[in-house]
Every structure is written in C-alpha cells, then in structure tokens.
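Q: Give me the 3D complex with adenine.
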Amino acid sequence: MRIDIISVVPELMTSAFSHSILKRAANKGIAEVHLINLRDYATDKHKSVDDYAFGGGAGMVMMIEPIAACMDDLKSQRNYDEVIYMSPDGEMLNQSVSNQLSLKQNLIILCGHYKGVDERVREHLITREISIGNYVLSGGELAAAVLCDSVIRLIPGVLNDETSALSDSFQDNLIAPPVYTRPAAFNGWKVPEVLLSGHNANIDKWRHEQSVKRTEERRPDLLKGK
Ligand code: ADE
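A: Here is the predicted complex, encoded as structure tokens.
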C-alpha cells in the first residue's frame, strides 16, 4: 500500500510515521507513507496555499489550484483508489472503515487547515470524507495519522503475530478481554486462575465471555449492531 498525505504542515506527522509499527511496515515495504508539502505546488511567487474567503468572514481558505496541481501530479504517476479529505463533518472512522481501506493499494489523504478547503475541492477532487470524532482539531494532520495507523496495522505482515489484529477490540463488534502478565499475584491482587491453567479451550471460552460481558457493560451500542 502507498499513502500520499498532502498537508501545509507535514512536519506534524513525521514522528508518527518514524517509529514502532508504522516504521516497521515501511521498512518491510508493506506500507509506504509519503508526506507532501502543499507549498511545493503553489502556483504564485509567494508560494500561497490559502486566501481570504469570498463574501468575507474570519479565517483563510485553502486554494484549489495548488491542491489540484498536487493531485494531478500524483495521479499522473499511479491510480488511486480513494482521495480522502479529513474533516470533522465526514463519515465517522470506525473499525469497519479501517478494514475496508486496508484492502486498497493507493490512497491520497488531504489534510485541511485554516477554515478548510475551497468547496470545489470537496465537490470535484475528493472521493471520501472521514472524521475521527465529534470535536474540531486545528488541522487534519493528527486525524490523518490516526487513520493511517488504524489502517496500516491491519495489513497482513505488518504485525508480527497476524492474529493479534484479529483479536483487537471492535473486530467482532466486541471489546477485547482483559490481559495480564507477571507477577501472578501483586499486593494480593491475583490473575484469574483459568489463565494460569494451561487449558487453551477454557482460556478461549473465558476470554470470549469476558469480551461479551465488557461490551454489555461498557459499549452496549456495539451489540445492538449485530
Ligand atoms: N480536522 C479537524 N477536525 C477533524 C476531525 N475531528 N476529524 C478529522 N479531521 C479533522
């Protein structure tokens, strides 16, 4: 998979992609993320990427020309499955959206900044708008990093133990069961006996029961969707 992220502050995302699982995915050649500075596609001598809103009002608007030039350049090199705009009024990110996107080959993600992008970008150049929650961030960059993390970790070969993404919370509309490690007792607080029993069938059964119980207690809305 290849993801091209277009932004006016790509530096905001460099750290997210330089460590841990996302770095490993890049090193293994499974998922490469390219951070593109929109200013490199500015069409005037001042390298402008934003301008005042027609009709007045506070805040700047990202211009269509640099965005179109950048996307044209990328599209001339390969085909893209989706051109995503990160926006608080987009479709809500969830595990099902991440699963769908993890099957794609090439994605463009556009990060909004200032007051947002010229509406014609959304009408004509974007295929999908995604929000990471009902709150407003200063820009789409952190949201794009969240989206990429949730998608890339699902691609086979990225995680060492491939089953570990399958047992994540939400994969089944269920929350993951509790986990424990050594010591088996701390301050008198004991690890559930069944986990120390070595009996795999009983352990699987216990974990499933715990998942259902947790989901009923904490996220009953997930069970209604089943
Ligand atoms: N840009 C600003 N806020 C956002 C959000 N909640 N989700 C995605 N992109 C955003």
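A quick observation: The chain has a mean pLDDT of 94.
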